[in-house]
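Standup notes, structure subgroup. Blocker cleared on the flavin-adenine dinucleotide input:
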Amino acid sequence: MSFSLSAEHEDFRNSVREFANAEIAPHVAQWDKDHHFPIDAVRKMGDLGLFGITAPEEFGGAAGDFTSLCIAIEELGRVDQSIGITLEAGVGLGINPILTFGTDEQKEKWLPDLVAGRALAGFGLTEPGAGSDAGATKTRAVLDDGDWVVNGAKQFITNSGSEITALVTVTARTGDRGEGRPEISTIVIPSGTPGFTAEPAYDKLGWHISDTHPLTFTDARVPEGNLLGERGRGFAQFLATLDDGRVAIAALAVGCVQACLDLALEYSLERTTFGKPIGAKQGVAFQISDLAVMAQAGRALTYQAASLKDAGAPAKEFKQAAAIAKLYTSEAAVTATRIATQVFGGYGFMEEYPVARFYRDAKILEIGEGTSEVQRMLIARGLGLPVE
Ligand SMILES: Cc1cc2nc3c(=O)[nH]c(=O)nc-3n(C[C@H](O)[C@H](O)[C@H](O)COP(=O)(O)OP(=O)(O)OC[C@H]3O[C@@H](n4cnc5c(N)ncnc54)[C@H](O)[C@@H]3O)c2cc1C
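Run returned:
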C-alpha cells in the first residue's frame, strides 16, 4: 500500500516542531539532570491540542487521524524522547483504552481532562512476574458488596504517579475459565483510592524526564462500574491497545534517528581533524549516510503502518505492519545513537551534548510495548510460522 503525507500534515509537523524548539528544547538538559517531570510543559502540550489529536470533538479533541499523532510524537521525540513518550503513553495508553472500551459515563468523567492535558492516565499491564507473558498476571480483583477489591502489583508504569495522574487502568484476574486459564478484566482505579499506592519513581538509565512507577494494590476498593469494557476481555483489550502503541513508539524512534542525523551532520561539518572537517573522512561520512537511510526507511515503515490504521485496514494487516515498524525503527534508533555518539568522539560521552542523552534514552525503545524478540515472534506468526 502506498501512502503520502498531506500539506496539512506537513503544516502540523512544522507547528509541533516550532513548539518543541521553543518550549521544550531549552529546558530538557536540566529536566533530565534533575529527573524532573515538567507538569507545565505537559499543560502547554495540552493547550496546543496534542493530547486531543485523535479524540472526538465532544470530549474536546480535534478528531484528527492517527498519522497526525505519530507526527507529533516524532517531532517531540526529535527534541527529547521522554517528552515524546509522555505524549505517546498519555494518548495511546491513557486516553485510548477509555475512549475505545469505556462506557458513556466513564468517557464523560475522565476524557475531558485527559484530552486537555490537565490530567494523565497510566496503563498497568506489566507485573513483576508478567511482562512479555502478560497473560500470567497475578493481580486479582474480587467482587464484594458491589465493589471490586483489587490486590497485587504492577511494574514500570508510565505516567502513573505524577501530580496530575488521575487514574490507572489495570488488568486483573477476575475469575477462572477452567483448565488453569484465568479470566482477565480491566479495572479503572482512580488516583487517591485507599490501598492504591504509586511507589517512589524508578531510577532509570534513560527517559529521566518521564514518570515511571511501581504500583501496589492492597484491598483497593472501587465501584463495580469501574470495570472497563466487557468482563473477561481485559487481555484482548490490552493487546489491541498495544498495536497502536507500537506504531507510536516507532514514530518516537524515528524522531530519535532524525535527531542523531541532525546532530551528527552538523558536528561533522564543524569539527576538524588533520586540517579538514571530519565529514570529509569516508569513515565518518558513510556512517552519516547510514543515518539518513535509517531515518527515511523508518519513516516509511511508520507512516505506512499509520496510514493502514487510518484507512481501517484489517486488524491482521495492521498488526503485522505495526510489529515490523516497531522492530526496525527501535533497533535503528539504538544503532543511530551509537553512531552519533561515536561521531562526537569524547564529547559524545559528555552529558552537556544531547547525543549522550539520546544514547541513554534509545535502549528502552527495544523493550517497551513489546521487546524486539516479541516483535519477531509476532512477525513470524504473521508469516504463518508455527513459532511458540
Ligand atoms: C521505562 C519503562 C516504561 C514502561 N511503561 C509501561 C507501561 O506504561 N505499562 C506497562 O504495562 N508496561 C510498561 N513497561 C513494561 C514493558 O512493556 C516490559 O518491560 C516489556 O514488555 C518486557 O517485559 P519484562 O520486562 O517483564 O521482560 P521479560 O518478559 O521478562 O523478558 C526478558 C527477556 O526475555 C525475552 N523473552 C521473553 N519471552 C520471550 C519469547 N517468548 N521468545 C523470545 N524471547 C523472549 C524478552 O524479549 C527479554 O529480552 C515499561 C517498561 C519500562 C522499562
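Discussed briefly. The mean pLDDT is 97.
Next: hand off to the docking folks.
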